[in-house]
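Schema walkthrough. Field components (list of strings):
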Amino acid sequence: MWKPYLSMLFKPGTIRGGVHPEPRKEATANLTIETAFPLPSILYLALQQHVGKAAEPVVRVGDRVLKGQLIAVSQGNVSAPLHAPTSGVIADIMDFPSAHPSALPTPTILLETDGLDEWREGIEEIDPFTLSAEEICARVGAAGVVGMGGAAFPSRVKLNLGRERRIETLIINGGECEPYLTCDDRLMQERAEAIVDGIRIMMRGLQCQQSIIGIEDNKLDAIEAMRRAVAPWASQMAVAVLPSLYPMGWDKQMIRYLTGLEVPAGGRATDIGVLMHNVGTAYAVHEAIRYQKPLISRVVTVSGGAVARPRNVEAPLGTPLSALLDFCGYQPERKARLILGGPMMGEALPHANLPLVKGAAGILALSVEEVSASDAKSCIRCSRCVTACPVGLLPLEMMSRIRAGQLESALKFGLKDCISCGSCSYVCPSEIPLVHYFKYANGELMAQQQAKHKSEQTRKLADERQARLERVRQEAAAQAAARKAQALAQAEARKAAQAAKASQSARSAETQTVESAS
Amino acid sequence: MNDYLLLVLGTALANNVVLVKFLGLCPFMGVSRKLDSATGMGLATTFVLTLTAVLSWLIEHLILAPLGIGFLRILTFILVIAVVVQFTEMVIRKSSPVLYQVLGIFLPLITTNCAVLGVALLNLQQESTLGQSALFGFGSALGFTLVMVIFAGMRERLALMNVPESFSGAPIGFITAGILSLAFMGFAGLSPH
Amino acid sequence: MYLIYALFSLTLMGMAFGYLLGIAARHFKVEDNPLAEKIEALMPGSQCGQCGYPGCRPAAEALVAGEAPPTLCPPGGRALAEQLANLLSLELDLSGVDDHLPMVAQVDETLCIGCCRCYKVCPTDALVGASKMIHVVVADACIACGKCVDVCPTECLKLHPVRPTLKTWRWPKPLLAGA
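Field assembly_structure (string):
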């Protein structure tokens, strides 16, 4: 209801903060997506490749599965199922290292491929516009589609919001602001019609009439391709050109730029009638609804100084990252850092023997020249980080408080609103790892929350134990009292019996005396 | 009205009891680590100072001067201060146990705060009326609280900084207090005296 | 002359002020130590005794008296130490509490004889078992106080560190803390 006032305050076209890192996309931006990636012998399918509860396997070791067959079901509302990327035999269901900086084990299904690539039944093309909105959302969920930009949030949950709240505009994120990554760019250039079809299906699922596709201005070919593809539906869909800035792809930044509305801190885009999806997700929805093919592969950018032939590769889920890197000419001796995702927000992996997951937009093997690994120096309070922060926070204040251990006061400066985009760390002249501090602080706060919860639980258990002991004691006391009462009663009865016997014997003695006397 | 306002402002800023007269430095350095405790201490001292200024003026002009026992002045004033501080302690203990705990030993040490005795004696020196004494006491305490709050805010910030180890804690606090005192010299033109 | 005036006035003043203070003391009487209760409410309340005091209430009173540091409670961990230090405006030295891995007790099933001594001392009833049956620890309820380890006659109960999982893994504090 305050929307009209806000839009008066903010004109469209305002951007807050942001930085301009070198794009470094030339190596892969002009090469087509490689679709002939050789099938690995084993695929490692983690049961948790999405936000929410992990999927539960429905196959057993030794089962033969076909391509696209359901192998794990979603658990609860915020979850996603998993499907076999190719045909083969289930070799094992075990704990395998996850694609995470810690590489800690996570339940994984190991699929031994048989090379036949045999599809399951039921992949005929259908007309998506005969389905109702609920049907579309349900099928998107059943196909295991999640946010392909990296967040991996189950798309069905977001599409369902269209029926709970009014969504006026669907914004499609073709920003791809991270350096090195070009998977969305190539997808838009080569498969524009499919993406537009997916967008229209999503609009039908959301029951919304308008959509804007936001593309950065350094992707001129993609803009051209998408404009041609949306031409038949120009009344409902439009392509908007965004300035190249990191992080333009952050949903709240793009929404503010395109609509002039600012999503409130702690709120969601749906609060102002807007929903955002990635172009890759739109493509996955197209495959899932029109061709009934579940999410089983994705386009990933393989790049970096330690890769000889960088390329965008369409690979099945569960592919070992080492296989992807070797396919693109990996030079391990030149590698200084392995990153899953982009260099600004991606996570450093300890080694490449980890599987490809649904949210992995890129795998980068950076060489020594591309990585800056010098020691952090003191903060000089230059406030470049404040200028760079797209959320409008004060990174230097939060960092100094986190360093001193005052996490509560760091929260007051907006720690919860930090999106970990890395703009502040990028511009810091003292090379302080600011985002590392914020991630550490968020982890500590969560640990403290869990500790407090455990503390309360412990107190409850201790109280219940005291209650139990009290109950036992009272029961014992009651039993003792009952026994005592019984013993007392018995004693009384015995005394009465004795008295009766005594009086009886006395009377018989009397009778005898009387008899003897008479 | 203007005179009174000027008196209070002059006492609070130009003749600031901590930074210009250098009285009451013990709680100034001791309780100013946290903003909450500094505010609490400032308010407690305000109460004590104002009440003491009034009571000591009354005792001087009603008992000591008429009976000619001026030589008991310091003794009596200390008695008054001790009673008021005891009373304040009781009130604080009842109303805010946390503040009581946080202030700790510094609460009864208001008795030995030279600012309190100093203000009471200075009032006599200036031969002020009852109203002027009360305002003088209140103004001094206001200045004391103001400086405590400013200094506590600064010290909280200092605690987050990379201060060299030999300077961290009290040394950098004293240096800051000195610079703050220099800044307060800028108010010198305000005082009517 | 002045001596008499001095004596008189001082005595009278002393008595008057004393009387006033006495009235005030009765009016502002504080029953118990409410601060100790506040502190006790923050503590886990399992009376495990790891702090060295015979329960959470004596530990709270020791904190109020200034005899114990805010890091005295191992099950409370860093969260509790920070809360106590904030409440009492005390200096916080986390060097002893840092990197304290969460532990959990485990029964070695090959050694357990079912003597039933352990569950009688567990403050949170985390041990389950019956006579001559193998006992087991309910990991969620265990606070690793170590009382069961002390009483077990076959030493089958031991404290093990909890293995970190993806859900419990945390980013470590940046070591390059800025010179």
